[in-house]
């Protein structure tokens, strides 16, 4: 039944994720589907993660997708956040996504997220600081 529902949603998952009721249906499908189906949903949502991160209903699906993401998928998601961390943190719903990604990230990925909050000058010289420390 879950496979059938995901098949019918295919191609429209990012639209469905933004709706109050259908996002819950989608979350349940993602919870009970196979890993291969989760990977398909992740790939379909990948280009829309930033817009979904600002949506109050879709944020729960994004968090669930991050919980079940492989290391490669998580790294891809964190790279998607590059350049958008500060605006997301200022947003009530977006900050939840950044915090959740930060909790799941490796030390290097956490450093990458934090670095975006530094001034432009410090970001330019980050390579010099890390080279001097080694």
UniProtKB/TrEMBL annotation:
Residues 1-134 form the PUM-HD domain. Pfam families: PUF. GO terms for biological process: regulation of translation. Keywords: Repeat, RNA-binding, Translation regulation. It comes from the Eukaryota. InterPro entries: ARM-like, ARM-type_fold, PUM-HD, PUM3, Pumilio_RNA-bd_rpt. SUPFAM superfamilies: ARM repeat (SSF48371). Pumilio repeats lie at residues 44-79, 80-116. GO terms for molecular function: mRNA binding. The keyword Repressor does not apply. One of its GO terms (cellular component) is nucleolus. This is Pumilio 24, variant 2. It comes from Pisum sativum.
């Amino acid at each position: 039944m879950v496979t059938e529902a995901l098949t019918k949603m295919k191609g429209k998952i990012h639209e469905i994720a933004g709706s109050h009721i259908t996002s819950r249906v989608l979350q349940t499908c993602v919870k009970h589907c196979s890993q291969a189906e989760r990977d398909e949903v992740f790939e379909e949502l990948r280009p829309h993660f930033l817009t979904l991160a600002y949506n109050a209903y879709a944020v729960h699906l994004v968090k669930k997708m991050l919980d079940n993401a492989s290391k490669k998928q998580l790294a891809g998601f964190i790279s998607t956040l590059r350049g958008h961390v500060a605006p997301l943190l200022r947003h009530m719903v977006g900050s939840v996504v950044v915090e959740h990604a930060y909790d799941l990230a490796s030390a290097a990925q956490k450093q990458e997220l934090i670095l975006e909050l530094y001034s432009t000058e410090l970001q330019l010289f980050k390579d010099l600081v890390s080279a001097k420390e080694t």
